[in-house]
Fold this protein.
Amino acid sequence: MNLETTYLGLTLRNPIVVGASPFCDNLDQARRLEEAGAAALVMHSLFEEQIDLEQQALLHHLETPAESHYEATSYFPTYDEYHLTPSTYLRTLERLKTALTIPVIASLNGRRPGGWVDYARRLEAAGADALELNTYQLASDPALTGEDVEGDILEIVRCVTATVKIPVSVKLSPFHASLSHFAAELEQQGAAGLVLFNRFYQPDFDIDELEVIPRLKLSYSSELLLRLRWLSILSPHLKGSLACSGGVHTGEDLIKAILGGAHAVQLVSVLLENGPRAIPAMLDGLRSWMIEHEHTDLHKVRGALNLKRCPDPAAHERANYIKILQSWKI
Ligand SMILES: Cc1cc2nc3c(=O)[nH]c(=O)nc-3n(C[C@H](O)[C@H](O)[C@H](O)COP(=O)(O)O)c2cc1C
């Protein structure tokens, strides 16, 4: 049975990728995930803000970026609070490349075009097989238009893809007025693939202490539905790769993502909850399903439930929406 897939031009032995998270900060952990069957790993992000701190420190001749005035006045973590400093990030990447045989994807995380995008060159030189760009931001300034926000992301992608030869993917937000159009524009700027989607971490309110509490909650399979929908809509039109990130917890979730059109799925929550053994369990689920449905090659399964054969996807989605609202009878 062939579970191979091509993601960002890389041949992967199966579609399971470890998503951006602290797993890759630790070499032993990364090895265990490779042994369990992971086909590629995405490193934790290196953030624009960290790189800026380092560059400011250089500018002001400070011995360490931790002495920078900028950090004391900002909402952001201090330099020491990040998991990996930019230089330890590069060293960790080099070590991962030496210790592992599967591809290692570095992750750069920023929101405005700037000097930080040059770091892509250093990640490539350190051996990254590909680069994932995360442009997470919540546009709260009323003066900022959707065009401004998308223009910044497109400019970041253009600069990075012009700088490196390795494939570059973009981890996207689902909240764009016309995601299909924006996805096509990202491809035009050189993106080799998209990761659907960033999760938006919603802070809660503490009603006794009157405080806002940032809290990281792990995902559930229910979050997969948003991804399935957009995989189905985008996969017939895009030339590049699609990865599904968010809500993949079981073999069934993995199969659904592939049927929607994903070349790969990225796992984080399920690995934090169950450890590396979640990977062989999911792959067993995929194999059993393929045997049951008489498939021998994953390439032939991918996209079987996307909207390729639908003449009018917008009308199809609208009709589904109306049917769902009409389905509840009292
Ligand atoms: C502890 C933790 C750290 C994460 N760090 C990053 C990161 O550095 N960069 C990034 O793009 N996503 C990061 N993510 C988001 C994950 O890569 C992933 O998109 C998200 O958890 C959804 O996948 P899941 O449902 O499998 O958890 C992190 C998630 C968790 C839980």
DSSP finds 13 helices and twelve strands in the chain. The two ends are 49 Å apart (CA to CA).
